[in-house]
Amino acid sequence: MSMQKKPQMVEAVMFFRERGGICKQMLFPEFEALLDGVVNMPEFADQQLRVAYVVINPRLLIKAAVFFYLDFDERGAPDRGWNIPLQHLAEKAGRGPDLGAGPIRLACRSQCPVSWHQMHLWDPSLAPGQNDLALLRDAAKRNSLGLLVEDETAQAVAPERLQMASEDGWYASEGGKEAAAKLSEKLDQEHRLKTAQLIKQQRLRIASLSQQREEELAKLKLASEEQSKSLQAQILGLHQALREQEALNTTLKAQLAAQAASFRSAREEMAEQLRTLEQHGRIESDVVRRQLESEIEARIAAAVVEHKEQVAVRDVELAYRREQDVQMQQELERLRQERDELASQGCEQILERLAALGVVFVVYHPGAGHLTIPLQDIARYQDNPMAYAAAKCFVSEAQYRQWLAHFQQPSCEATLPSGERCAIPIDRVDSPGRFAVGDSNCCSRHKASSRLRTVG
Fold first, then answer.
1. Of 135, 150, 165, which one is at a domain's C-terminal end?
2. For the chain, which terminus, N or C, has the lower number of CB atoms within 10 Å?
3. Residue 433's domain spans which residues?
4. Angle CA(150)–CA(154)–CA(156) in degrees, nearest 5?
5. Does some domain include residue 58?
């Protein structure tokens, strides 16, 4: 006699498309084989996918879900450094919406039981028509994985086994009234529980939308700051070029004025000589006049030629200096590259060995949390850890440093008329993206917004 397999809880993994919808499903052992490199998925090459780990009961209802990211390389192999404990997160997760079998255990970015894994999770969309939880529920019901299902058909009771109560028991007794009251109380409690679950689901959706809005605002703010800095740099460059051109024009005008004064003095001197010679005779004066005019023209031509030669020499010198500047910049860039290559030759081999062994480089920065640094970002992180952490928080490095000083010592930084710092304790702003200089680091008396209202 062969034994039938009994339906039991099943772990599965479902992959989401970029524009919504589920594109692939697999059992958890198949997913572990994918992580171990036994198989690859070329259709996901060089992509970051949204994935959901789900626990399904024998009635094809979801009991737990964990929403996480998974990166694939150009060959379709998953990230070797991926190490999220899905089963542990599912066991420790908080309550979520009811998908048919009571409130599920839900782990996502806005509800993560282990803080340093939060950055690798994502929040499901709960919008009508685009509800990711509803997609998971429907996919589990379709049973594309071929899971064993528990038989729900109830056995019908034969008519001959039905018994009719005596006539005196047709009407509700005291015990019946008490049972009806308990049933009413139970229904009321179930209604309250469902209402609380619906409220929690809406709160989760609101928290997800708020976090998405804050990330979008932080990205827009960072892009605006970078564009403003670029425009400021262009304006400074144009001002510098204008000042140089004005200085050159002033120098040339001074040279022309000096030459004109010299020409005027020479003309006056020659005119005086001409008047003196006119007294000695008309013919001699004509000869002298012609000689003087030719001499003046020769001097003028010589001065013009000399001036042109000076300008040409200066142009050559400027071109030579520009060429030298370009060569020096190229040489400096080459030396920097050689320095970086020499500095990273020894360390990169060790880091590549560690990465091949599955070691993950994790650092902690306030505001950004625990950051997993890919191997290709190690050099950039070593050059400027603060800038790396600020980029992960979607703020500039200067704002991140100001927020960090406020985070370590949340007190008013305004300066009193006596020259001393106000130093009144204030509320700490936990997110760098919400930090505003002159407002978040000041008490209510010194906030920039309150001063503006007072002035208006």
1. 150
2. N
3. 361-455
4. 155
5. yes
Closest CA to 120 of 52, 48, 69: 69
Sign of CA dihedral 52, 56, 62, 64: negative
- What total of structural domains would you count in the chain? 2
pLDDT band at 25 (very low <50, low <70, confident <90, very high): very high
| Secondary structure (H, E, C), 281-308 | CHHHHHHHHHHHHHHHHHHHHHHHHHHH
Q: Is residue 351 part of a domain?
A: no
Question: pLDDT for 378-410, tens place per residue?
Answer: 888 888 998 988 898 998 989 889 898 888 888
First to last CA, the chain: 91
Whether 2 is covered by a domain: the verdict is no
237 within domain boundaries: no
User: Confidence band (pLDDT; 50, 70, 90) for 32?
Assistant: very high
Higher pLDDT, 162 or 284: 284
Q: By the 8 A CB rule, do 360 and 108 touch?
A: no
Tens digit of each residue's pLDDT (9 = 90 or more) over 110-148? 889 888 988 999 999 888 888 899 999 999 999 988 888
pTM above 0.90, yes or no: no
pLDDT at 434: 86
* Of 101, 117, 150, the domain-final residue: 150
Contact between 4 and 50 under an 8 Å Cβ cutoff? The reply is no
